[in-house]
Each structure stands twice: as C-alpha cells, then as structure tokens.
Amino acid sequence: MSMIRTEHLAKSFGELVVLKDINLTVESGEVVVIIGPSGAGKSTFLRSLNNLEKITSGKIFIEDKLFYHRENDRTVDKMEAKQHKDLLLEMGMVFQQFNLFPHLTILENITLAPVMLKKMTKDQAKEKAMELLKRVGLEEKAEAYPVQLSGGQKQRVAIARALAMNPEIMLFDEPTSALDPEMVGEVLDVMKDLAESGMTMVIVTHEMGFAREVASRVIFMDQGIIMENGTPEEVFTNPKNER
Questions:
Q1: Cα-flanking dihedrals φ and ψ of residue 12, to 5°?
Q2: How far is the C-alpha of 45 from the C-alpha of 96, rounded, in Å?
Q3: N- or C-end of the chain: fewer Cβ atoms within 10 A?
Q4: How far apart are the C-alpha atoms of 217 and 18, rounded to whole Å?
Q5: For residue 20, which of 44, 51, 3, 49 has the smallest C-alpha distance?
Q6: Please, is 79 exposed, middle or buried when counting C-beta atoms within 10 Å of its C-beta (0-12, 13-18, 19+)?
Q7: Which parts of the chain have pLDDT scores under 70?
Q8: Helix boundaries (H) for 96-140
Q9: Taking the complete model, does pTM exceed 0.90, yes or no?
C-alpha cells in the first residue's frame, strides 16, 4: 500500500511558483530522503502533505485515500472532516525548531496531545511516554523542563512527542539544522533506529552521509521540481542530472 501519493502537486505564493508538478509515491516502510539547495521547495512540499500548506493544485492521497484535490487555489474534493482529522493524526511531524511548551515538564509535553485528543488515558499516556523517553535515551529527564535540556535532547523529546500519537508516517523537516554540530549525531541515531524499525519516513535534510546510509530512496529537488529520484547509490554515485 502506498502511504503517500502526490499527483501534479503545485504550490504558488502569488507570483512565486514554489512547487511545479510534483509526482511522488512513498510506499509503506520506505525512508524517503529529500535533498536539494535552499529554496528548492523541499519544506513546502513536506508541509503540504499534512495540510500545513494548502496546495495550489494537484491531488494528495494518504494510505490510498484521496486526502485533498485542489485546482487553481480552489478545493475540488476532499474527504469528510472526521476521516481527514484521523488521517492527519496518523502523520507525526518534527520541525527544525522543537516547539516544546516551556512551562510543562518533558513528560507533560509528550502526554498532552494523546490525552487531550482522547487517544489514551493519563496513565496509558504516561506509560507510553516513559517507553518513548527510554527509546530516545532520555528517561531520566522526564521531570525536567525544556530549558534544562540541550538542543539535541530537545529534538529527541520532539521526536518522542510525535511518536506518542502512534503515527503511521513520520515527516522530518530539517530536524538537525538548528543544532550544534556535536548534537546532530544523537538525533540522527534516533532516526536511524526508527528507520530500522520499519517506520515510513519522509525526511528533508542536508545531512548527506545520513541520506546515503538510511534512505531507501533519495529525491533531489531544485527550483520546485524533482530532478532525481532513485536509490542512494544511483543519486550519489551515478546521477542522471548534472546539477
């Protein structure tokens, strides 16, 4: 089953065309890494998948169901509201900035959404959060506040928070770009572990070594289009496109 499929996806901000005719399928269990220069449209594409950016035109399918169809900035078709919301909750997202609530402990940051959205009881959410903190190597920080954590630790908490909703798909938007270089490895290690566990992932990153090691497929974007789409070997060693 394809987890994500886009057909003729385009996005403009006024006169500025950011995405042009993007056709991409992500299968269950794939790790798709998107690389390319700044301004290539990578983050806009990622944000359009979970409706943080409204596409100008094209179709987005999630788990083979039509999620959104827009033409000329108008919605032509979309799924009914409850199903739309449920599918959105199946996509976890990790941003450049950690977006943790400073007044809540790490444990509270992770349990907030599952409890508020009635996905779990408080006790279930706490148990799940402790499991996830153990997985990202931070169980001893459960009662700490974000201000007491390093950037790398905050990003690992942000990953745990996204995983607390039991997503089917994880989207990562340059998760290491705001980190000091020595903290990048600890976040990439958590992402490698996720990839090895079979999680479907779409990752925008500048970390080429990570892309080569972890990706099942690498997408090279430039000027709003997909220039290359292949295995890491094909894209890094034997690209079709000079760029």
A1: -125, 145
A2: 15
A3: N
A4: 22
A5: 44
A6: middle
A7: 243
A8: 106-116, 122-135
A9: yes
